[in-house]
Specification:
By secondary structure, the protein is mostly beta strands. The chain has one domain. It is built from two helices and seven strands; from the N terminus they run ββααβββββ. The strands form two sheets. A four-stranded antiparallel beta sheet has the order 5-4-3-6, covered by helices on one side. A three-stranded antiparallel beta sheet has the order 2-1-7, with no helix packed on it. β3 and β4 form a beta hairpin. The longest helix is centred in the middle third of the chain and has 10 residues. The chain starts with a strand and ends with a strand.
Length: 127
């Protein structure tokens, strides 16, 4: 089950609600590919070609798009055998220039005011 988190800046008060984690449908590789462009989805399919049970993790992660400056939820799939990661493009502008921030919120600059130190709290669940 995934979480809905609220990422906030204490200085300017700006906040963003995004989904993180994964849902039950993501246990099947084909269900994970909707968030990726067709060319990236094809690369992922080819990577796991011939494997009856692909060994991967999938989740939505908190990120900042370095092009449009939005806090976003971005899909990421990792091949657990090769450690190859596939990160989807920004759902807003389509840029692949995104920085995953969910493990470093306390040192991340607010895209609104530039203050270091975003915070997060769980505001709901999704599946």
């Amino acid at each position: 089950m995934g979480s809905i988190i609220k990422i906030s800046c204490k200085k300017c008060g700006r906040s963003w609600d995004i989904k993180t984690g994964m849902g039950m449908t993501h246990a099947l590789l084909e269900n994970c590919l909707d968030d990726f462009t067709s060319d990236v989805a094809d690369k992922i399919r080819k990577n796991f070609e011939g494997q009856e049970f692909p060994h991967y993790t999938f989740m939505y992660r908190a990120a900042i798009c370095n092009k449009c400056g939005k806090v976003i939820s971005v899909a990421q799939l990792e091949d657990l055998d090769t450690k190859q990661k596939y990160t989807a493009a920004c759902p807003g502008c389509g840029s692949y220039d995104v920085t995953i921030i969910d493990d470093k919120l306390s040192i991340t600059k607010c895209p609104n005011c530039g203050h270091h130190g975003l915070t997060s709290e769980t505001s709901g669940l999704w599946d």
